[in-house]
Amino acid sequence: MPDKPLVIDGLTFKYKTRPELALDNVSLELKQGELLLIAGSSGCGKTTLARCINGLIPRSYRGERSGKVLLHGREVADLQIPEMAQVVGTLLQDPERQIVASNVFNEIAFGPENLGLPRQEIVSRVNQALKRLNLEYLRERETFNLSGGEKQKVALAGVLAMNPSILLLDEPLASLDPASAHEALEVFRSLADEGKTVILVEHRVEDAISAKPDRMLYMEEGKVKYLGGIQSLPKEIDHTKVKLPAPWVVQRVKALDVITEEPPRPRTKEQGEPLVIFEDVSFQYDTDLPFILKDVNLKIYPGDLIAVLGPNGAGKSTLVKHAIGLLKPTRGRILIEGQDTRKMSVAQIAHVLGYVFQSPTHMLYAPTVQEELEFGPKNLEYDPLLIPKFVDESLSTVNLNGFAEYPPLGLSFGQQKRTTIAAVLAMRSKILIMDEPTAGQDFANYTHFMNTLCDVSEDAQSILSANFSATLFITHDLDLAVTYANSVLLFGDKHIVADGTPEDVLKDEELLLNYRVRPTSLLHLNLSLTAKTGRFLPAESLAAYVS
Amino acid sequence: MLVTWKYRPRKTFIQSLDPRTRLIFFFAVILGLTIPEIWDYRIIFPLFALSLTLYFLARIEWKDVKRVWPYIFVLLFFIVGLNGLLSGRGGPSSVTNLPSPVVFTVPFKIPFTDIGWDVPITISKMWFAITQMLRMLTMAILAIPIPYTMDPNIYGTAFRQLGASDKFSFTMDLAFRFLPTFARDFSITMDAQRARGYEMEKLKGGITSRLRRLAPLIIPVVMQSTVTGEEVVDAMDLRAFGATQRTWVKADLRYGPRDYFMLGLAATIFIGCCVLKWGFGIGEYFVPEFFLNLFS
Question: pLDDT tens, A329-349?
């Protein structure tokens, strides 16, 4: 028993502020060098379990806890902070939340410094961690200037420098582009192979599986629903709740004899005047700083459902900020319905373009969700009699019915994100722009609202499809582009490198890899079946074409 | 995540100094002016000239600080200066107690009525406003270069090697980075709300109503700051901060000859101000002859 890195026995926890159990009788044992994948939808208890393992429960989060959490045979609650930190190294979901120092060397040295280690030992540990993750080139860089992938690796290096025997990784892929996520997963696997016990909490199951986890723990409503090898996953786990690799979904759909309707063919692009035109747009923040955008040409037409793909830091968000007038081009011009954005205020543009920002906490302020959603339409001076209707429809689209009177800042991150999307939907702009709409969302929830939003077939009855002429979303999730878009923009090297239908752009695997977009099993399956299907389809619908 | 100020390494006299020297010099001037309550322009002006020299020696590019100076001038002229001019408060009692000729009066009255009062602007109040602005400006131009010319990686180390505790030193490190982080959050929130049709220019109504209309900006920024604070605490806990006496790995700050010169100057300024004021009674507020003559 004492040599086991982690033993959890009958763990139950209820937060002081919530009536329901966050964890209900969870039991688990981990061996040295084992990689465990923990998955489940939002609110299933994954994060609470992680907090019980790293000691934030009971130290930072109050509530009623029963059962045992033993680290190398010692109860977590009895361990002192320095002992704890040397046993469990925690990598948080968002590296921005983890990084405390202003440069890379200081960040990695921060933990060993706190342990009071001799200076030479600290420098040696920092160098080892940098070398282990191939980060030597970042050694003296400022942390806030790093890309998302680099930040995540630096945060991991900071954890490794503490030399913990258990690594607890809480949704570490959330802010990474697909190629960076893949590189991170390879590192996690190799750390397990070197003898670390690795706990990977992740709802991107398809991606996580590439780290070859030894076992998977699947949770629902605080309870363990499945604990075992990943071979049995297709049988055990509902593919509508957790995103599984496409061949597994097909296998499951066939085995269960699920009848799935083929989604309607996406609305084709309308001919006519473009809504937005980028003409040779270049942008730099200052004359002595490099260009972020260079010679970008783009037209958005009514009926467009555009997915913007590309690596972290490529300039995708900068592109969108130009469209909504928050940034003005250094060279070239942008026309919104024929008018130059230089001559329009952001509020005027907001009538045409609604933009959902990436981070909900930068936007939410109202005492209730209802008031939050009314804010935009009121600013745009819409008819007060129509606003409640817009609000109700938007809430329904993002699956937040019944939350109208809740304070938005009291909701979970996923719910907050959906509130921000609903707030922009309620503005009824002609074009909806979303920056990473699925970040922090579980699969079931984002599938629901993406289905509702993107149901823009010719015969769709969706109120949203009737109100939005075009939709554009920035995403790292290639499957969103495969499933929902009728046009894909691949962005890289400060300009658009490919623009066309998903079938045309995504078939060039080499091009995708050059721009750090990693083909998924759904893309591969679709490409292998395009001769039969004639277009890209979701995994469930492909089952009918697989013999 | 906390961001840092726009620091650039430069080969300048200022950046060749040990950061501790610069902090000590800064506090020596501030304390020299405030503890013995120096209001004599003959002492303040040389200190102002010295601060200005140091400011130019820092060779900060205008584009880096062009957004800071308007705030400083608004603060100086409209808050410090105007307050001094109208009330004569915030300084020695002699500004308002001693008889001084009234140059003009400012009527504070409800329009079209006789309700209100006339505020006399005396020569003494005018000189006091000038002195007060000069005093504040002396401190401000010493402070402005610090974040732009001090390596953010050694904020904490500098305080630790000045003898502060680990917690205080790291708190100062975080505090230095709070303002640019706050500015970044404010900018993102502003963009997010403008994208929802919010226009600050359209704020209408009285003060209460205007403040209420600022809620979409203020609440997310305050919430973000709170969340950032909590996240930083969790991140520090998870890496054992405060568990034991920490090692500061970048603790190799060394004083050089320039530092000793500046530290000597700092000591001279502080001790000199105290001795002049308490030893010789020099430093009290008075209106110089040349200023009085301007209105005679």
Answer: 999 999 999 999 999 988 889
Q: A-chain residues within 8 Å CB-CB of B185?
A: 362
pLDDT classification of A465: cutoffs 50, 70, 90: low
Contacts of B119 by beta carbon, 8 Å cutoff, 6+ apart: B86, B105, B106, B107, B108
Distance from CA of A493 to the nearest CA of B (A): 25
* Residue A8 per-residue DSSP state: E
pLDDT > 50? residue B58: yes
Contact A154, A127 (CB under 8 A): no
Q: Give this complex's ipTM.
A: 0.79
Contacts 24+ apart (CB under 8 A), B269-275: B269/B28, B269/B29, B269/B32, B269/B47, B270/B28, B270/B29, B270/B31, B270/B32, B272/B32, B273/B32, B273/B33, B273/B35, B273/B36, B273/B38, B273/B43, B274/B32, B274/B35, B274/B36
Q: What is the pLDDT of residues A22-45, one digit of tens each?
A: 999 999 999 999 999 998 887 788
In B252-281, the residues whose Cβ lies within 8 Å of chain A are none
Domain ranges of chain B: 13-294
Q: Provide the pLDDT for residue A130.
A: 94
Chain B segment 30-69 residues within 8 A of A by beta carbon are: 63
Bridge-based pairing state of the strands A353-356 and A431-435: parallel
Residues of B in contact with A154 (CB under 8 A): none
Contact A427 B191 (CB under 8 A): no
Q: What CATH homologous superfamily does A276-531 map to?
A: P-loop containing nucleotide triphosphate hydrolases (3.40.50.300)
What pLDDT, in 10s, does the model give residues A231-253?
887 788 888 888 888 999 998 88
Distance from the Cα of A435 to chain B's closest Cα (Å) equals 12
**Distance, CA of B122 to CA of B101 (rounded, Å):** 6
The distance of A98 to chain B (nearest Cα, Å) reads: 5
Taking CB atoms and an 8 Å cutoff, what residues of chain A touch B223? 361, 364-365, 409
For range B256-273, the mean pLDDT: 97
Is residue B234 within 8 angstroms of chain A, CB to CB? yes
Structure tokens at B57: 């020696």
pLDDT at A73: 92
State the Cα angle at A352 between A350 and A354, rounded to 5°: 55
| Residue extents of the structural domains in chain A | 6-237, 276-531
Phi-psi region of B256 (alpha: psi -120 to 50; beta: other; left: phi over 0): beta
**For the residues of A80-132, what is the DSSP string, one character each?**
-HHHHHHHEEEE-SSHHHH--SSBHHHHHHHHHHHTT--HHHHHHHHHHHHHH
Eight-class DSSP state of A330: S
Does the distance separating the beta carbons of A376 and B196 come in below 8 Å? Answer: yes
Mutation for testing the B interface, residue in A346, A353, A357, A362 having most B CBs under 10 Å? A362
Q: What would the pLDDT profile of A67-108 be if each residue is shown by its tens digit? A: 999 999 999 989 877 788 889 999 887 787 788 898 899 999
Query: Residue A78: phi, psi to the nearest 5?
Result: -90, -10
- Specify the fold of A6-237: Rossmann fold (3.40.50)
Residue A142 is classified by DSSP as: B
Conformational region of residue B197, where left means phi above 0, alpha means psi within -120 to 50, and beta covers everything else: left
For residue A212, the model assigns a pLDDT of 92
The answer to whether B102 contacts chain A (CB < 8 Å) is: no
